[in-house]
Design goal:
This protein has about 260 residues and is mainly alpha-helical. About 45% of the residues lie in helices and about 0% in strands.
Length: about 260
């Protein structure tokens, strides 16, 4: 079994900078948060890692995606990095937490409990009902759609919106149902200084990059024994494929593609 002590220790290291996970990009634009040019990317890169600085071996920052122009392309790249970093941070912390704790109440209306923390996170995912998996993907899809349409109030991130700034749910609250914004729902950070915004932006980028390495380190260690020597003592072998979330349940080629 995975050592709870080691996993909680890793969690505590990450939690120390948790406040910086999403604070930067949600605030008003600062001099380097609206990265419309390659020079802006280079400025952020040097702040994020003064040793490596700007690293773009594929020259993506010089491209013109879908004929939308270079500034739109850079907006897409910035949005993509911030989004993937946030998802990885959620995944890394979630992996550690669910290896040690699951909700004590029933997972389904039928009274089925949540999968045991004795299982690895990958095994826990395999054990939850198919309907629950579709609910998760439905919520993710709704959030993606809201982001792409700017919440009905913001331009697209390839058309001038600050990369990483998730739209407010204000229109949804006013017309459909009360719901909190994802970032700073109580407005605690509305008076944050520009210096703090800048520092948290850089911290979020670095935390996101580290979390991407961290979660894939866990997945590789579980799937390929010995592939991550530092995790040999805590990895749980997993025989499934973590890159196929509906393995054995969903196929576009089957007669019942949604497995229902």
């Amino acid at each position: 079994l995975v050592s709870p002590t080691m996993k909680l220790a890793a969690l505590s290291l990450l939690a120390g900078s948790a406040a910086a996970f999403t604070a930067g990009p949600q605030q008003a634009a600062s001099s380097t948060s609206l990265s419309a040019t390659k020079a802006d990317l280079e400025a952020i890169a040097e702040k994020a890692n003064p040793t490596v600085k700007f690293y773009d071996p594929l020259n993506l920052s010089d491209k013109n995606f879908w004929g939308q122009g270079n500034e739109a392309t850079i907006g897409f790249l910035r949005q993509s990095e911030i989004k993937h970093g946030r998802i990885a941070m959620f995944a890394f912390v979630g992996y550690i937490v669910q290896s040690n704790f699951v909700f004590p109440w029933a997972q389904t209306l039928a009274g089925t409990p949540h999968p045991s923390p004795d299982l690895s996170p990958e095994q826990q995912w395999d054990a939850i009902p198919l309907g629950a998996k579709w609910q998760i993907f439905a919520v993710i899809s709704a959030l993606e759609l809201w982001d792409e349409c700017g919440g009905g109030s913001l331009p697209h991130y390839m058309r001038g919106r600050q990369p990483g700034k998730f739209p407010s749910f204000q229109i949804f609250r006013d017309n459909v149902h009360p719901v909190f914004d994802l970032y700073d729902p109580f407005g605690f950070n509305k008076n944050m200084s520009e210096e703090t915004k800048e520092r948290r932006l850089v911290a979020e980028l670095n935390n996101g990059r580290l979390a991407q390495l961290g979660i894939f380190g866990f997945l590789c260690a579980d799937k390929i024994p010995g592939s991550v020597p530092a995790l040999n003592g805590i990895a749980i072998p997993y025989s499934g494929d973590p890159m196929i979330p509906f393995e054995g349940q969903f196929s576009y080629l089957s007669g019942n593609p949604f497995g229902l």
